[in-house]
Design brief:
Layout lengths: L7 E3 L2 H13 L6 E6 L6 H15 L3 E7 L2 H10 L5 H10 L3 E6 L6 E6 L6 E5 L14 E5 L1 H10 L15 E7 L4 E2 L1 H9 L6 E6 L4 H12 L4 E7 L6 H11 L5 E6 L6 E7 L2 E8 L5 H5 L3 E6 L2 H17 L1 E3 L7 H10 L1
Parallel strand pairs: 2-3, 3-4, 10-11, 11-12
Antiparallel strand pairs: 1-7, 2-5, 5-6, 6-7, 8-9, 8-15, 10-13, 12-16, 13-14, 14-15
Length: 345
């Protein structure tokens, strides 16, 4: 009988890398591994993962490392003054049998590691975490799935999963993906459906980045019908700080909007949706409330209705809220820089 473990929330970068490394190290001939990230940066953790993937390929596993190779990620690297290990991945792929470098030509912001076993259940580790030592102190989440739910992730990212339909399925995960190569964009319709759900009366966000597209196409749908929106964002974001603040300036006058600043670099993308009877669903994954995430980028999210995972994810978000400070006054920012950030990010 196939062993199936419960979904598990991982709340740290190091925990996510350890989980990925454990799956890599146990991979054998005939297994299929796909690691997909937006940014693959230098560092001890990245080097360890690449070395592990090369060893898995030497054992006969089929390994794919997929990294965004478009101008979208190039602009972000230039903005952050960082570099990519994509050339290293190309070099490994040229030298190692069973190792493939996938340099994506359609912008894809989703982050996941899939392990399909020749013998044993599929495992998926998926969420919002990129790879590079710089990300170690950031507040972010990934989920480890095993068995049929993990296989659903593997199928979904290949463009072969079930189309998104709202409301989400009870007691499980309902996957939502935007896949530019398949001309499939489900993220914005999912946000729209959640914002307009008449049973939702309160929303609590933990979100790295937001811009005016996120306001007009998503948040206004809830605010205009009187839903209380609680919004946590980083006090000082690694990028897009001014566009975050410009969005806050537009939102703070609304009496239904309440913002807090997380003292850490918050990179999570989580929406808790409450109704009269408590937490109804959680929308979680890689998508920000920004123009590119909503309209152009590849993203992988899910509505989480698995009871145990809902509880741990809710507790994790609420713990960050307890550390955060209310934002009550319009912030100062450089408007020209904010507009440029909106256009480039």
């Amino acid at each position: 009988m196939e062993r199936v473990s419960e979904p598990r929330l991982i709340q740290s970068y190091d925990g996510a890398v350890e989980a990925i490394q454990a799956e890599i190290d146990s991979s054998q001939a005939g297994d299929w591994i796909r690691l997909s990230v937006w940014i693959l940066e230098p560092g001890e953790t990245s080097e360890a993962v690449l070395a592990g993937l090369q060893a898995a390929a030497d054992r006969g596993a089929q390994v794919e490392v997929s990294v965004d190779g478009t101008n979208a990620s190039l602009v972000q690297r230039l903005w952050e003054r960082t570099v990519t290990l994509l050339p290293r991945v190309r070099k490994i792929a040229a030298a190692v049998e069973n190792f493939t470098c996938v340099e994506r030509t359609k912008p894809d912001h989703s982050k996941y590691a899939i392990f399909r076993r020749k013998e044993g259940p599929t495992v998926a580790i998926w969420g919002g975490i990129n790879m590079g030592d710089r990300f170690r102190p950031w507040r972010d989440f990934v989920v480890r799935l095993e068995g049929p739910l993990a296989e659903e992730v593997a199928t979904k990212i290949q463009g072969e999963g079930e189309p998104f339909v709202y409301p989400p399925k009870p007691d499980t995960l309902t996957l939502v993906a935007s896949i530019p190569s398949e001309d499939q964009f489900e993220i914005l319709p999912a946000f729209e459906a959640l914002m307009q759900d008449p049973e939702v009366t309160r929303l609590r966000f933990a979100m790295a980045y937001i811009d005016r597209t996120g306001i007009e196409k998503v948040l206004r749908l809830a605010l205009d019908r009187g839903v209380r929106v609680e919004f946590m964002l980083p006090k000082l974001a690694n990028v897009y700080q001014d566009s975050n603040l410009m969005a806050l300036e537009a939102l703070l006058p609304d009496e239904n909007f309440h913002a807090v600043a997380c003292p850490h670099m918050l990179h999570a993308k989580v929406t808790l949706a409450y109704g009269a009877d408590g937490l109804r669903t959680i929308f979680f994954g890689s998508a920000n409330l920004k123009r590119y995430s909503l309209l152009y980028l590849g993203e992988l999210n899910a509505f989480v209705n698995h009871p145990a995972l809902m509880k741990t994810l809710e507790d994790a978000v609420n713990a960050l809220y307890e550390e955060s400070e209310p934002i009550t006054e319009a912030p100062r920012y450089w408007r020209l820089k904010a507009v440029v950030e909106e256009r480039l990010g």
